[in-house]
Amino acid sequence: MIARRVAGLVILWVGALLAPQHYGWTHYVSAQHRFSAFYPPGWHLLTPDVGVLQVVNFPDSERVGGTIIPPAGAIITVGPTGYPGKTVNDVIVASLVGADGPPILDQTILTDGLGPDGCPALHEVQTYLNLGSATHPVLERDTTYYCQVHGRIFTVNLEYFRGNRAAPMLESLARTVATTLRIEK
Questions:
Q1: CB neighbours (10 Å) of residue 78?
Q2: Do residues 36 and 30 lie in contact, with contact meaning Cβ atoms separated by under 8 Å?
């Protein structure tokens, strides 16, 4: 009887180590680009079956034109980078073309290794993009996490409008999504 309890506790302990740390999060797997990530409950797939993960925090009933983000909305996109470059720094330089000024944040976040297929480090870059005009700016806040594993570079990108009251929570969710990213060889 004691042996069964000990074995059960060991199984629970190992399962807790291997399971995602966020109960209720959805696991997304891209067979096309050979990566996986988890996204939070209440978020909705924007473009299923395209090989990248795109989720929004607003329902279909609030969508206009497919990807226009409402004032309190946000979108998280996970996938291979669409920019040229062999290093994360090359990709960051290419991705900053068109940003309104230099990054407002540029830092490297060391992770706990996350296993052989997870990101050993995340490079976080935050920028603004003006979707309006010079006289009537409409600033979109972009936070991008860059990850290089097995020689492949992936990004986790969060987009929302400046002034969004949920910004700290959105930033935290995006960082958590980035820490769940796994890239196959």
A1: 27
A2: yes
Structure tokens at 73: 């909305």
pLDDT number for residue 11:
38
Complete DSSP assignment for 103-115: -SEEEEEE----S
Total length of the chain? 185
Please answer whether residues 113 and 121 qualify as being in contact, where contact means their C-beta atoms are separated by less than 8 angstroms.
Answer: no
| Residue 79, domain extent | 23-183
Identify whether 17 is part of a domain: no
Q: What is the pTM of this model?
A: 0.82
Write out pLDDT tens, residues 108-125.
887 766 678 998 889 999
| CA 103/CA 16 separation, integer angstroms | 37
For the stretch 7-37, pLDDT in tens is 443 333 333 344 445 679 999 999 999 999 9
Instruction: Give the type of residue at 10.
Output: V
How many separate domains does the chain show? 1
Residue 156 · residue 178 · CB < 8 Å:
yes
